Amino acid sequence: MDIRIGIINSPREINFESSQTAQEVETIVATALETDTKFVKLVDSKGKLYLVPVSGIGYIEIGSESTRRVGFVA
Asked: DSSP letter string over 1-68?
């Protein structure tokens, strides 16, 4: 699934593909925003950990779980 995070006062965004489900990501972000948590912890499909400060999150876009691959299909 594709995840895109917009950061406040930054022209760039964080974009990565995760093996977590949309529901898991939504739960993690909602819990962090409702409680006094300082960071959101998300893991991409290669195992890289992303720590995003909750105070800096402008938006989070959670894409579809199936992505289209570029290239020929055999």
From this structure: -EEEEEETT-S-EEEEE-SS-HHHHHHHHHHHHHTT-SEEEEE-TTS-EEEEEGGGEEEEEE--SS-P
